[in-house]
Structure formats: structure tokens, C-alpha cells
Amino acid sequence: MSVRKRTWTTEKGVEKSVWVADYTDATGKRRLKSFKLKKDADQFAATATVEVREGVHVADSATVTVAEAGEFWLKSCASAGLERSTLNQYEQHLRLHIAPMIGTTKLSKLNVPAIRAFQEDLRAGGRSAAIVKRATVSLGSILSDSQERGLVVRNAVHEMSKHRGKIAGKAEKRQKARLRYGIDIPTMQEVRAILGAAEGRYRPLLITAIFTGLRASELRGLSWSDVDLEKGVLHVRQRADAYHAIGMPKSDAGQRTIPLTPMVINALKEWKLACPKGELDLVFPNGEGNIEWHQNIIKRGLHPTLIRAGVTVEDQRTGGDTLIKPKYTGLHSLRHWFASWCINSKADGGLELSPKAVQTRMGHSSIQVTFDTYGHLFPATDEAQVLADAESRLLSVNAT
Description:
The protein has 400 residues and is of the alpha+beta class. The chain is built from 15 helices and 10 strands. The strands form 4 sheets. It has a 3-stranded antiparallel beta sheet, with helices on one face. Strands 4-5-8 form a 3-stranded antiparallel beta sheet, with no helix packed on it. A two-stranded antiparallel ribbon has the order 6-7. A hairpin with a 5-residue loop joins β9 (312-316) and β10 (322-326). The protein is elongated and about 95 Å long.
């Protein structure tokens, strides 16, 4: 690595000069980089020397901008067969948050301080904490894709995550509120009221949602071929996304078999006779036999049922008027109830399943997801009593 001054005369007779850092990169290719000031050239030379020695240097001329790398990444995601909704989210992250802030920046210029500055600029621009997090994750994915293409060696997002991961993880757990009965999870009394108030074409769907814990996308994509009413089970093998495309569950664990209660079996047997027929042979289609819109299920099925059941809250409007609203806004509340029902002790009217069995019923990708979401609902062990019982057994054995 050398730094030298280069001087030349233009066609108009004006003398100009720059400082040139002359070096050979990790691939053995000679590189030249010009600077107006010698101190900048010296600083670059010192940094590049270390990077070349450690094998983490990529010349600016050998890389691309963040915006260009983002387009490469989106094409990779599309070719990998990701769902349309996921691709749209990634495209929005790039177009609305990443490109406007650092789109023209070369990948080789991205380091941990640059990522921190990017996050701070997002916050200053009014982005929420959730958006900042998602945009940063997408930026990390862009850099990972660029690493595979040889456009950059270091992934500054991942480097920052390694240093801050433990602290951020603890902070996130502190900030995330636990699910609560009557707030996020319907109570037993509320579920009884919902079952009593369910009627019409959405009754079998709501009953199935309550006693199987299926996600809304899984209910919308459920096929009659995956329901065995004789054996009393249903198989989750597909789902319907927000754009009415049928696809596989998001994870391998999402493919599962769930036993049905007598109430679900009877409701589905009755519904099968009246269910609109369609090419997809769906269990819960719209009136024409096609995939039902998620919002239709909420606005025409769930919310009217909650209001009839009296599972409501009062909303004080401007002017003193009171508006009666459904207490729970989405089907996920019924999924939360099913999980709690699986966890509750038999004495409390639950199934009292093991954590692993709950994970399987819910279709969680890992047992950690189950514990992170519902761990506080599992009965706590009275360690003092357990120790006392163990001691008693030990002493009684010695005594004999």
C-alpha cells in the first residue's frame, strides 16, 4: 500500500493534483483510489491495509449501491417463491425506508456507525420503533444476499446485532406485555356466550376456530379433503394468503393434525350439506365457493356474534354518545383462547396438555415460541412443596 501525489495539467493549462492510494486487494488486483487531501488518503490506506490483510476489503468500484443491491435481493426473494404479501413488505421496506436514506451509498461504506446513523435518521423521520426494526432486518438481508454475490464482505447489521443482541432481547422482553384474560384472551364465560350467539354461515367457522386454534389463513384455506369427520380430525396442509393464493403453511410445524370435539364434528357435518361448492372444495368459502375475504369473516361473522353475545366494550364518543363495540377485534383472540384451554388444568375445564403438545396443536415453529407467547399461562410449580415431598419420601425410605 502506497500513497503518492499525482499532478497533471488540463487542456486549459490549469495544474491539478490529487493524492492516490495505490494497493493490491485480496484477489491480487491492483486498485487506485484518489483523494483531495493527503490525510484522507493516509486514513484510507491504513484502514484498507488492515481490511485486505483480514480478507474483508471490497473496493468501491467492485461493489454497488444499497439501492442496486436491494433490487438484486428482491429478485432473489421472488425466485425463492416467497409469498406475495411478504414480497410486498420487503419492497416497501426498500422503497419507503432504505432507499430514501442510504440508497446511493456504496455497500463498502456500510459499517456499524453507518447503520446506527441510518436508524437514527429513520427515527428522526417519524418512523416507529417497529418500522426501524423491520427496515434494519431487511437491510441485513440485503447485505447477506450481497455477500453471496461477492459485492461485500462484511455485514454491518449482523455485526451490530451480535454486540447488541442480548441487551436488545432483554429490553424487548421487558416491553412486551403478557397476554391477559379478558383483554387479549376471552374468558371461559365469554367463549360460552360466543358459542351460544354464533349463528348462520359463520357459526361453523367460529366453532372450529374456538376448538382448533387455527389461524385465520388456515381456516380460509381449509379443504374438505383435509377434514375426516369419521375419525374426528382435520389436517392443516395449506393456507390462503391475503391475496387469495393457496400455499403451504409458513413452517413445517404448521402442517399438523388436530383432533375435533363433538361440537365441531356436528357443526361441520351440518354445514357440509349447505356449504357452497367450488373448484377449491373449501370448508369455509364465500357464497360463490371461492376464498373468503378475511375482513368479511371479521365484520360479518366475528363482530356481530360478539355483539349478540354481549362480549363488548363501550366507547365514549365526542359529544357524550356511547358506542358499543366488539371487545375483541380479530380471530387471533380465539386462537389465544384455544392455547389457554390446552394449557389449563382439567380442574379448571382445560385439557392440561404438555408444552410440547401445545406447540404441536398451535403449529409453532419451536417450543420457544410457545413459551414466549404462553409460558406465563402454564401452572407454576410449588418448588417448596416439591422439595418437602421429596425429603419426606427419602426419610421414609431410610426409616424402613
